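Subgroup meeting minutes
Present: P.N., E.W., G.H.
Scribe: E.W.

1. P.N. recapped why we're keeping a running log of single-chain structure predictions: easier to compare across weeks, and new members can see raw inputs and outputs side by side.
2. G.H. added today's entry (242 aa).
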Amino acid sequence: MVRFFVDPETLASDSLILTGENAQHAKVLRLRQGEEVLVCDGAGQECLCAISESSGTQWALEVLERRTPQSEAAVAVSVYMAFPKADKLEHVIQKATELGAREIIAFPSARCVSRPDDKSLKKKLERWQKIAQSAAEQSGRGIVPKVLTIPSYAEALARAAQADKALLFYENEQALTLKMALAGEYATVSLLTGPEGGLEEGEVAQARQAGLQVCTLGKRILRCETAPLCALSAVMYDAGEF
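Output recorded in log:
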């Protein structure tokens, strides 16, 4: 079913109107009067609607049912990734959204080559959020994951540690597997991975002190853009989402 995202104020109205890019999208899809669509606020509410009228520049919808999204994972997973080079973060945002992540957070670490300044970061955040929204629409999500940046590694650790399961992945860890770390019940999970050069030993020790469990993702070394998606998929499987 076709899905549109609007702001919460629009969704609160009894008579919904699609305008702008949403109206253009509806026109391209050649939607007709009577067809049903889903309209979401991206924050946990959606409406099943029927098209009642269209003028080309705007589309009027009749609300048939208001409900919580049917496609969201029961577990809320936050993906923390150290700033990577080039457009690798864009790839992770897109795929993590498809896999069900609730938020994607980028942060600096000692070996990060990419260190965007405040000016470029503002533009990047806008682009990253659009990528998340587009992926949410494509994959049938009811929630658009938030894309955030945190100015320091220490702050990223403090925030990640608040989850029921706060996990950091390190290539030199051998004792604790992800399966072992996920034992027991949990509703929130933080997954933290490093940049291309990995995390320094001191950063791993800092993570332990902050309360994160340090895990292995297996015998093979994964690229920085592969590791968070691998871990996210494993968590979703363990949580019964697959």
